[in-house]
Amino acid sequence: MRISTGPLTSPEIAYDISTAVERHEWPDIPVISRTNFLAVFDNPPPGQTRERYLGYLDGKPVGFLVLRFPELDNVENVEIALQVRPECRRQGVGRALFDLAVERARARGRKHVQGETVDRHPGGRAFAQSVGARAGLSEVRSRLDLTTLDEPRLAELMDDAWKHAEGYRLKRWVGVPPDDVIDGVAYLESRMNADAPIGDMNWEPERMDAERIRQAEQARARRGRIGYQAGALIGDRLAAWTYIGSDVDEPAHAWQSTTIVDPDHRGHRLGLLVKIHNLAHVRELKPSLQMIDTFNAAENTFMIRVNQEMGFRAVDALIDWQVDL
Ligand SMILES: CC(C)(COP(=O)(O)OP(=O)(O)OC[C@H]1O[C@@H](n2cnc3c(N)ncnc32)[C@H](O)[C@@H]1OP(=O)(O)O)[C@@H](O)C(=O)NCCC(=O)NCCS
After folding, report:
1. Does the Cβ of 47 fall within 6 Å of ligand 1?
2. Hey, what CATH topology would domain 3-110 get?
3. Cβ 77 vs Cβ 101: under 8 Å
4. Is the C-beta atom of 18 inside 6 A of ligand 1?
């Protein structure tokens, strides 16, 4: 078997490899549409550059590598996504692409190569260990099944939460946050980056401001992703914020991402309030939705408990890895 690597020649090839791997790694998550996948190429998040490569087995492309280089902060890091077609594994393509990732990381002055593997198949973990990576953070993926949602329970949780949240009001929006909350969103997103558990990963809080939030959201929209959001305000101050993202081409599935309560406003059940409010929001605007997945650091017991109260159930475990160069 002859192994080689080279720059990505066509996004279409990347789509075919990537979706074959995704189907295998995440069989319960619908794969991204070709349109949404291709749109990422021209619309990366602000403050990030990417390089993409293919790995070949006897001249046939079977592996795909993406390197994401943060440019505004975390400039010593590079995140990699390395995928090899399931039927072409254990022949050295993964290793060849990893060696290339290290070479590119060094060439661009990066000191930490970071990646993640899912525990569903043992290969990812074995591979990470074989290249000398160390486990930095354990994560759990949990799922909320909207077809069996316990609505009376959610209403009860909401009523109970309000008893602790006197004086706060809820607000919802889609996409770029409106002017009255965008600075608050930037502040909370910075806090999120500072407060969320990161285990032993080398990661500095991303610096956020209204303009970066706006650009990130505009880039997401161009990638075909809609951000459904809700916040809790007291006076004109945003005290909590939560985000659900879903691709326009994807009818059934969405991702619950950031939820953050300002440290000055914790203890008022605002996390639960904004999450349940936003769940109603997304279901109203996207009635075809059937499932929402979310990732949490395994040590983030507070957020996991909130999720479990809402009906989220753990379905998968992940590990974030790091190789220090
Ligand atoms: C991880 C992945 C990229 C490895 O690709 P690959 O082409 O099979 O990797 P290689 O053949 O170069 O394997 C290199 C070494 O990793 C280890 N390894 C890889 N898969 C393994 C498995 N299933 N069981 C045990 N060891 C394994 C072995 O030590 C192997 O060397 P060996 O075959 O000489 O024993 C591939 O399994 C994949 O696409 N997984 C899903 C995505 C992922 O987890 N990516 C990694 C993090 S970004």
Report:
1. no
2. Aminopeptidase (3.40.630)
3. no
4. no
Q: How is residue 191 written in tokens? A: 């806090």
Ligand 1 site, residue 95, Cβ cutoff 6 A:
yes
Q: Is 67's C-beta closer than 6 angstroms to any atom of ligand 1?
A: no
Which protein residue's CA is at the shortest distance from atom 24 of ligand 1?
A: 123
91 within ligand 1 shell (Cβ under 6 A)? yes
CATH class of 142-317: alpha beta
Tell me how far apart the 2 most distant CA atoms of the chain are, in Å. 68
Ligand 1 atom having least distance to the Cα of 122: 23
Residues in the chain: 325
**How far, in Å, from the CA of 258 to the mean position of ligand 1?**
31
In angstroms, the CA 82 to CA 55 distance is 10
Which distant-in-sequence residues (6+ apart) come within 8 Å of 182 by Cβ?
A: 176, 210, 213, 214
Q: Compute CA 136 distance to the chain's CA centroid, rounded to the nearest angstrom.
A: 17
Residues 6 or more apart in contact with residue 73 via CB below 8 angstroms: 47, 204, 205, 206, 207
pLDDT tens, residue by residue, 185-231: 999 998 876 777 888 899 988 888 999 999 999 999 999 999 999 99
Domain limits, CATH 3.40.630.30, in the chain? 3-110, 142-317
Is 89 a pocket residue for ligand 1 (Cβ < 6 Å)? yes
- pLDDT tens, residue by residue, 34-75: 999 999 999 988 899 999 999 999 999 999 999 999 999 999
